[in-house]
Amino acid sequence: MDTGNYTRISEFLLLGLSEEAELQPLIFGLFLIMYLITVFGNLLLILAVSSDSHLHTPMYFFLANLSFVDICFTSTTIPKMLWNIQTQRKVITYEDCVSQMYFFILFGGLDNFLLAVMAYDRFVAVCHPLHYMAIMNPQICRLLVLVSWIMSALYSLLHTSMVLRLSFCTVIKIPHFFCELNQMIQLACSDTFLNNMVIYFAAVLLAGGPFLGILYSYSKIVSSILGFSSAQGKYKAFSTCASHLSVVSLFYCTSLGVYLSFAATQSSHASAVASVMYTVVMPMLNPFIYSLRNKDIKRALMRFSGRASLKGPIVLGLKMCTGLQSP
Question: For residues 297 and 241, what is the distance between their CA atoms, to the nearest angstrom?
Fold first, then answer.
């Protein structure tokens, strides 16, 4: 096509998960509840870790950072979706769409890097317990988080810059509830070959790298655990990794499921529905996965609730979420 036919459009239409009017109140209520649970659960985890000196360790430092990133990750998409349903307007400006895409990739990448950092932390704790505090000192922990932010920001900036070079011919209807990178590339009129190549190479280097790091860390952890002589030692070592391993499995399985569902069906709607798992469900479940079977987190939540003098339904909600009994 002649490049002279391209125009720079000023807005897009987000079609959401469904265009059926009778389903909108149900979708609004469901996603509002999940969003509030996500924010409240992760914020409570951050406050519990920050307020309890017993949890000022590398593992919980990374966990608090992961909870903060999960709040930001969900907040890049769900509030806009809820606003569109409430106002019955599906329009998002070009600038807002690009900004949403940047922060979505940024916080999604941070999830990936932080999970890899947490796997390394568990590797050091299990395989080199005597040198754990020397290796995972506060300066190293802050440096690992800082590097994760820098790498994620560069990764997001690369993809966003590549999208900015694309042109769109008509008013674009995005069959999704947010400005998803692959959808944007597919809807462009200009040549997207370079964009697709960048996606593949960046995914291999910056997304595959942390994944391989996680696999290596856990291969060493499993090897070390199998070498323990006592069953109690094996159980204790495994229990320190179980929550993180559950979150890693959830993160990669849901992310992989989205792209496999799209590749198998070539349906944008199926991809949008599947993406709910890693954009909403996963950040919502993370604090529960880390707290339900973690006695340190349970005690910290009770101490925090006691200091804050929480009464009535809030205390009841904490007990129900963490499985705690009254002292």
Answer: 15
User: 168 — phi, psi (to 5°)?
Assistant: -125, 135
pLDDT tens-digit series, residues 167-222: 887 768 888 899 988 888 888 888 889 998 998 888 888 878 899 999 999 999 99
What's the CA gap between 105 and 160, in Å, rounded? 9
Whole-structure pTM value: 0.87
- CB within 8 A of 120, min separation 6: which ones? 144, 213, 217
Residues written for the chain? 327
Query: 256: which 2 tokens?
Result: 């992989």
